[in-house]
DNA sequence: TATGATAACGAAACCGATTGCGTTGATTCG
DNA sequence: CGAATCAACGCAATCGGTTTCGTTATCATA
C-alpha cells in the first residue's frame, strides 16, 4: 500500500500542491478542466489526504468525540453504535471516551479534544462540571444529550425526562400503588433530576407526599443495583414500598436479581418500572416494564445536529425533545394489600 | 484555556524549541539543570504537546485502534472498556471501531489507522480478510484477540476455544444428553471454528457422531438468536435435540427468549450452554450456564501486549492463551426422556 | 490598441512538533 | 598551554497539508 502524498500527486500532474488542495476541497482558483483531471487522478491512485496534516494546518480534524459514562451500559453502547454508524457514513471518525462518570476524566477528555482539534464533541454523561466556559469560547462544535447547562449555546437532544418520570409513576398509581419508592441516579444528573420531579409531580397530583418514602441513589451500574437490592431485602417488610421507580434498566436488573436471590418475587411482592428500554429488557425472563427513549432516533438526531453545527457554522440552534414511551411488560402488577 | 505551543514555552524560557522537545522526551542533549527547569515550567503552565504535530513529524500518534464487531454486544463492550481504561492510563487514546462484521469496513478502518499513523491496532473481529500483507509490512503494532492467521508475526491473546467447546459439551454429556445441537458463529471465525471442533471431539469421545445433529449459525446478535429460536419451535418435537451449545450469550439470550415465548421451558425441555459469560448472564431470571473467558484478564493482557510491541520494537512475540471456565447456572439439567 | 478587471495558477509561509547537523564552550589529556 | 573531545544547545529542514499573496494570462471595455 503505497502512501501517496499531495506532493506526489502534484508532481505527477505537473501542478503545484496548492492547486491540488484547492481542487480537492472544491475551492475556487482552479480551472474546470484541470480540476477534473486532478480529481480523476486522485480517484485512480486512491489518494486520501492525511487528516493529521490537514488538522494541523487547517484547524479541524474529522474526529468527533463521544463522551459517555460507561460503554458497558447498553443504553450508552446502543447510542454510541448508531451515532458512530451515522457519522462514519458522513466521513467522520467518532472516538468513544468513557468518563466513568468522573468529572476529572471528562474534563481531560474535553481538553484533549480541543487540543487535538476535534471537529466536535457529543456530551452524554450526566455530570455538569466546569465545561461551560471552556467549550463556549473554543472553536469546537458541541451537542448535548440528556444534559444541559444555563447559557449553553449549542444544540441538544433531550428526552422529556419529566414526562418519563411522570408516566412511569402514573402507571404505578393507576395500578393502585401509593407507597412508591424511587432510586435516582447521579446527584448532578439532569435526567435523574427531572425524572424525579416527574415522579414527585405525579404523586402530588394524587395528594401523595414523597418526603418519607423509600429513596436510594445509584451510579447506574448493575452491581450497585444489586447492592441496593440486598439492602432492600434487609428492610422489615412493612417498611418496604409496594413499587419502585428505578433510574435505569441496569440498576433495575441488578436490583431485581438481588430480590429474587433472596426469595422475593417480582411483580408479586414488588412492582418495578425503570428507564431506557435496553434491548435485553424485553427478553423473556426479564420482561422489564420500562420507559423507552427511542435510542436509535436520539442517536440519529444527535449525529445530525453535530454534523450540521460543524459544517454550517451559522446553523440555527435546535433543541430536540424526544418523547418517552412506557413499555408495559411483566414487572408491574396491580397493588394488593398483604 | 490558553493553548501553549512548544514555541511559547521555548520563547518564555529563552531556549530553542529543539531543547524543549529534547527535555520533554527524555532525550540527551540537554543539561541536567536546564532540563529540570523546562520540565518544571511545562508542569506549571500545563503545557501538553499537540499529538497531531507530533505524529506528523515523529511518525506515530498515540492512537490505538480497537476494531471489533459490534459494541452493543456486551462481550465486546466489556473488553473495550478494560482495554481502553488500561491504555488510557498509559497515555494512549483508544479508538473503538465497529466493523459490524463487514470485511470491507474492517479493511477501510485498518487503512485509516495506517494513514493516520496509529501506533497500533487490536483486531477483535472474527473475519480473516486480506489484512495480512497490509499489516505486516507497515510500521504499526498489531495484536490479535481470538483470531489468528498463518504467518502472523505479532502477539495475540486467544481463549482456548477448543477447550471451551469441549467442556461445554462435556457438561451436557455428563448430564446424560446425547442429542446435542450446535449453533455456530460466523463462517470464518476462528473462535467459532475451534469451539465447534471441541464440541465434535467431545461427542466423538463417546462415540457420538455429529453429522446429522441440529446445527445452525448466528451472526452473534440477539435478534438472530430469537429468529433461530422461532424456527426451532416450529420443528416437530422429535426432531429437536435435548440440549444445544450456542456460540455466544447474546444469541442464547435471543434464542431462549423465543423458546419461552412459544411456551417452551428451559431447562426442562431444553438445556443450553453458551460462551462469553457477559455480566447479565448471571442475573436471576437468566441464569445462563456459559463458558467464561475472563474478559477483564483478556483485555489487560491485550493492552499490555500492544503497549509492549509499540514501545519496545524488539519485544518478544507472545501468544497468550486464556483458560476458559464453565459457569454452571440454571439453563442445563440432567437429561430425562419425554 | 492600451488599460483594467478577473480568473488561474505557483511560491512560500504556516500549523506544531521532531531531528540531523553545525556551533559553542568547557573539560581533559598529552 | 594547545589540541582534541564531548556535552549542550541553536538553526533549519521536515512531516503533509492549507492559505495568503503575488504573478501571469485572458478577456472585455473604452
Percent strand of chain A equals 15-25%
CA gyration radius of chain A, whole angstroms: 25 Å
Sequence stretches where pLDDT stays below 50 over 5 or more residues of chain A: none
Q: Structural class of the secondary elements of chain A?
A: alpha/beta
In percent, how helical is the residue content of chain A?
40-55%
Describe how the helices and strands are arranged.
The structure is a homodimer of 338-residue chains.
Chain A: H1 6-13, H2 17-24, H3 32-45, H4 51-58, E1 63-68, H5 74-89, E2 93-98, H6 103-115, E3 120-123, H7 132-137, E4 141-145, E5 155-159, H8 161-174, E6 180-184, H9 190-205, E7 215-217, H10 222-234, E8 243-246, H11 249-261, E9 271-276, E10 289-292, H12 295-311, E11 319-322, E12 325-327
Parallel strand pairs in A: 1-2, 1-3, 3-4, 4-5, 5-11, 6-7, 6-8, 8-9, 9-10
Antiparallel strand pairs in A: 10-12
Chain A binds a DNA duplex (30 and 30 nucleotides) through α2 and α4.
Structure in words:
The structure is a homodimer of 338-residue chains. By secondary structure, chain A is an alpha/beta fold. The first copy, chain A, has three domains: 44 residues, lambda repressor-like DNA-binding domains (434 Repressor (Amino-terminal Domain)); 130 residues, 3-Layer(aba) Sandwich (Rossmann fold), CATH 3.40.50.2300; 133 residues, Response regulator (Rossmann fold), CATH 3.40.50. The first copy, chain A, contains twelve helices and twelve strands. In chain A, the strands form two sheets. Chain A has a six-stranded parallel beta sheet, with helices on both faces. A six-stranded mixed beta sheet of chain A has the order 7-6-8-9-10-12. In chain A, helix 5 links the parallel strand 1 and strand 2. The radius of gyration of chain A is 25 Å and the shape is elongated. At the A-B interface, helix 4, helix 5, strand 2, helix 6 and helix 11 of A face helix 4, helix 5, strand 2, helix 6 and helix 11 of B. The structure holds a DNA duplex (30 and 30 nucleotides).
